[in-house]
Design goal:
The chain is α+β, with helices and mostly antiparallel strands and about 575 residues long. It is built from 20 helices and 24 strands. The chain binds adenosine-5'-triphosphate (ATP) and magnesium ion. Adenosine-5'-triphosphate (ATP) binds next to helix 2 and helix 5.
Length: about 575
């Protein structure tokens, strides 16, 4: 006799549940998605003990009649698709017809539902796959599904559940994703009798973000959108200053479905390139709308991944939309002076404001009361600036000083800015170098006295493998004896860098990173290094005209608020903040 048996239907469901229902949060997600598909206007989620004891979701959606209610918990039963063609054009969140069957096979369920136009409702109970008869009951229209004692007959699965707090963290995350994608709906989340969220219907996205996250995030978002090639993009992008150490605050929605997609993550990373340090992740809320037949959602049991038919288009549209907006935005960091009553902090804050007041007093002619403070009517000296006009444009050079030979302080229309001279110059050099490299326009000059250096076998190999890159940079190297090279020509723009040291470090960089990076990223690394070497250093005294030149250049480049490593170049102090500190308001 053969050993193969056909598994019974409850076993099949339990196995499916293994894929779909990982923990209480998966149940919450599936039930909330069903409520949304049912056209609910209000969804209430009640949890006890992190979802181990109870998960209950109530909605005011279309409801189910007695027949549908008994079918809903059977495997492969759905009202959302019928034919193969429907499968290629899925506009609902669910379609697999297995979520309720999976949940019902691993917990105790009570479901109550009433159709909008019926006078009464129906109730059904299921204990780990075993259904009771349907009984009529009186209830509001809509559906309530209560899931108790998840995995109670599966001790091995139950053992994997974490503390109530951890499970609640996962539940909140799924609730947040669904609430973000559906600002037109009202939601509540209650845990152990305590209300965690009460979100009203028809909120703006930014208000919803403020409620679900923090006012800091809400205050640091940049809005952008595009609508091209049948792809609509809307995004609220976090400014670099609120970046994170992981990508958990990157929320991507495709036609209302939260997804994770490596092409999109890459596009986001690229969009923020050079505005963030490499180990930081931006906060992004990204909403994509496109025809449902342009991607396949039937590739993952929890539907968190999709397959785009034209992933390159999605990538380039997102990258273009986000990056364009970022580069056009003033990303200077606003200084927040402490408003605390902590005496030590207050003293520090007082010192800063005193120093600034002193600075303005020295650099402003004594005039009216307002003007005595040097705030409002700075002498305007017309200056021709480049195409990009930063909102904090420095209108005059008379109110500029250098402090500690490292920072430049300059007055602006609505306050003042402090610039890190090295970081800003590094950004300027980076932009200039990359523009010239890309247009093949980087001048180099012959060294009066060529400098030679010894090199190892692998360094010689590196030079050979990167001849094109050396040429692009206008660095000419020729053999000088059997084991040495000499630097004959060097880029004019890098005059501040010492040629020999630069070339040796460049070879080291290429040896170390040449094999792991693609050509574009490698060139970027080299540009970064060159910009850093060529830039004015901290501790270097600058003349007024050098500072003026830096400030003028700053206004002609994009992304001047960050150095190429993503650190801020400029901190902005607003007049209103100063006035607050001086208790003038
Ligand atoms: N809250 C609800 N209100 C009205 N009908 C519901 C509700 N929840 C489930 N249903 C009905 O029960 C059916 C089965 O739900 P289930 O979640 O198992 O499958 P699905 O949503 O169709 O697909 P998926 O498995 O991908 O979620 C649904 O297709 C829907 O008709
Ligand atoms: Mg479903």
């Amino acid at each position: 006799m053969g050993s193969i048996v056909i598994l019974d239907h409850n076993m099949i469901n339990m196995i499916a549940a293994g894929e779909v229902i990982e923990r209480p949060a998966s149940v919450v997600k599936e039930l909330m998605e069903n409520s949304i598909d049912a056209g609910a206007g209000k969804i209430a989620v009640t949890i006890e003990d992190g979802g181990r004891k109870l998960i209950s979701v109530t909605d005011d959606g279309c409801g189910m009649d007695a027949e549908d209610l008994s079918y809903a918990f059977e495997p492969h039963t759905t009202s959302k698709i019928k034919t193969e063609r429907d499968l290629q054009n899925i506009s609902t969140l669910g379609f697999r017809g297995e979520a309720l069957a999976s949940i019902a096979s691993v917990a105790q369920i009570k479901a109550i539902s009433r159709r909008r136009n019926s006078t009464g409702g129906n109730c059904i109970e299921i204990d780990c796959g075993t259904q009771t008869n349907i009984t009529p009951c009186s209830t509001d229209y809509g559906t309530t599904i209560q899931v108790r004692d998840l995995f109670y007959k599966l001790p091995a699965r139950r053992k994997f559940l974490r503390t109530a707090n951890t499970e609640m963290g996962h539940i909140t995350e799924h609730f947040t994703r669904i609430a973000l994608a559906n600002c037109h709906l009202a939601f509540t989340l209650i845990h152990n009798g305590k209300e965690i969220y009460r979100l009203l219907a028809n909120e703006t996205l930014s208000n919803r973000i403020a409620e679900l996250f923090s006012s800091e995030i809400f205050e640091n978002l940049i809005e952008t959108e595009s609508d091209e090639k049948a792809l609509q993009i809307f995004a609220l992008m976090g400014k670099p200053r609120i970046s994170r150490t992981n990508n958990k605050l990157q929320y991507v929605f495709l036609n209302g479905r939260f997804i994770r997609d490596k092409f999109i993550s890459h596009a986001i990373r690229e969009a923020y390139r050079t505005t963030l340090e490499s180990n930081r992740y931006p906060v992004v809320f990204l909403f994509i709308k496109m025809p449902c037949d342009q991607y396949d959602v039937n590739v993952h049991p929890t539907k968190i991944e999709v397959r785009f038919y034209n992933a390159n288009l999605v990538h380039s549209q997102i990258l273009g939309c986000l990056r364009e907006k970022l580069l056009a935005t003033d990303l200077h960091v606003d200084a927040k002076l402490p408003s605390t009553t902590d005496p030590a902090q207050a003293e520090r804050s007082q010192k800063i404001t005193d120093a600034m007041a002193e600075f303005f007093k020295k650099h402003r002619p004594m005039q009216t009361h307002q003007q005595q403070l040097g705030f409002r009517s700075a002498p305007r000296q017309s200056r021709s600036v480049g195409a990009v006009s930063a909102p904090t444009m420095v209108k005059t050079a008379t109110n500029v000083i250098q402090i500690h030979d490292s920072f430049i302080v300059a007055q602006t229309d609505d306050g003042f800015i402090i610039i890190d001279q090295h970081a800003l110059h590094e950004r300027i050099m980076y932009e200039d170098l990359s523009r010239r490299i890309h247009s093949g326009n980087l001048e180099s000059q012959r060294l009066l006295i060529p400098e030679s250096f010894e090199l190892t076998e692998s360094q010689a190999e590196t030079i050979k493998n990167n001849t094109e890159l050396f040429e692009k940079f206008g660095i000419e190297l020729i053999p000088f004896g059997p084991k040495a090279m000499s630097v004959q020509a060097f880029p004019t723009l890098l005059v501040k860098a010492e040629p020999l040291g630069f070339v040796q470090d460049l070879i080291d960089l290429l040896t170390e990173k040449g094999s792991s990076l693609d050509a574009k990223s490698l060139l970027d690394e080299v540009l970064n290094m060159a910009a850093c070497r060529a830039a004015i250093k901290a501790g270097q005294k600058l003349s007024i005209s050098e500072m003026e030149k830096l400030l003028a250049d700053r206004e002609t480049i994009e992304a001047s608020g960050r150095c190429p490593h993503g650190r801020p170049t400029t901190i902005k102090f607003s007049l209103s903040e100063l006035e607050k500190q001086f208790k003038r308001t």
